[in-house]
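Standup notes
- HV: blocked on the assembly model, inputs below
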Amino acid sequence: MKIITRFAPSPTGYLHIGGARTALYSWLFSRSNKGIFILRIEDTDINRSNIKSVNSIIEGLKWLKINWDKGPFFQTNNLYRYNKIINLMLNNGNAYKCYCSKNRLNLLRNYQIKNNIKPRYDKFCINFKNKNENKKYVIRFLNPENGYVIFNDKIRGLIKTNNNELDDFIICRENGIPTYNFSSVIDDLDMNITHIIRGSEHINNTPKQINIFKSLGCKIPKYAHVSIILGDDGKKLSKRYFSNNINDYKYKGYIPEALINYILKLGWSYKNKEIFTISEMKKYFNFKNFVKSSSIFDIKKLNWINQYYLNNMSIKKIKSNILPYIKENKLNISKKPKIENVIKLFNKRCKNLVEMSKFFKYIYNIDIIINYKVIKYILKFKNIFKILIIIYNKFNKIKFWTYKNINNIIFEIKNEFNLNMYNVCMPLRIIITGKKNTPNINNIIYIIKKKKTLYRINNLINILFNFKYFD
Ligand SMILES: [Zn+2]
């Protein structure tokens, strides 16, 4: 049997953490079984669906490299097919038209609640057939009155629902567009979906959907309902201190593999393994290792994994990940230094790609930002004006721009002025980079080469001169 899975989001918002996780599980299961993974956009709720959400979902999946084999299919392109089956069901008595007004349904509901009866539709219209052709109607599924719906959830085990707990739910709205529970079943059927992996908020839909499958005499797919994800306050994921939107992690410079690694483990585990490559994920993924209880989204853990990836990824991989951010910052990296050498300076000390690409500014741009505050800070260092002029002259005389030669000059200055390393390197660091916290300044001076180094030192000498600063 060919394994076929799908990710079927409703485009009523961005791709959130939970959605990305079910997409990941469905994708991994199909990939680990050489199956097919389908992307289906469930947009039959036309008032809430929008193209912006579709684009956001697709952007998120592409960034995470969760690639689909077929689709995206849009349910609104398939209305003809749904209506054909609904007509079939009307004809064979598996569905019927309901002309009840909202008012009547409200009265019914209130009466049932008042009398401690579970609110459900009372089949009032079941025998009307087509008598009220001109009145608006919805179409209801004729749910079996007796017996049980039993399915073996791949994560939760046997789930049994009494049919008398389900009512004749609506499968087609007044506007002729089918509801989620119906269109979803028809597509799962037509696409030969074998395994449906989705959030546990769908557990209540599953018996209804199974009953539709049964009424059509079709094979029922296997279901797996994954646990919910909560914030560390035990409540639903909120936007209080981190985002639930996958694309925000892209904009903040996370590594997609790191995010996937983290999301994978929200609800699934393998021994005590923390870090998984994508091929390891495909290799180890199975239904046995799912966690039934809810999981907690921990941003600190995600940050730890992200940093781990950044520190341990190959330079080549970091390069391909950081290029979009470099483009965003409009940095011209076509000239020297080689980006690989720059990455080597920073990959062990950055938390994310945005931070790293910001550091690239003082490597690739000619000018750096030196504000008044910085100048005041530099002025605190003793003999700084003299030191800068001497450093400038010494650097200017260097014939071979080697790390060793740069290092020697810094040592000479240190000894000449009887200073400690900090008092030479710190002002130099700020003049060269505009920042107090950088990798070894000798390395930076070496990598940005002579011209840029002299340019920046000279710039500061001029600024200090204009400040009428003399020792
Ligand atoms: Zn009715």
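- HV (later): unblocked. Residues 185 and 209 are 6 Å apart (CA to CA). The mean pLDDT is 93.
- Next: hand off to the docking folks.
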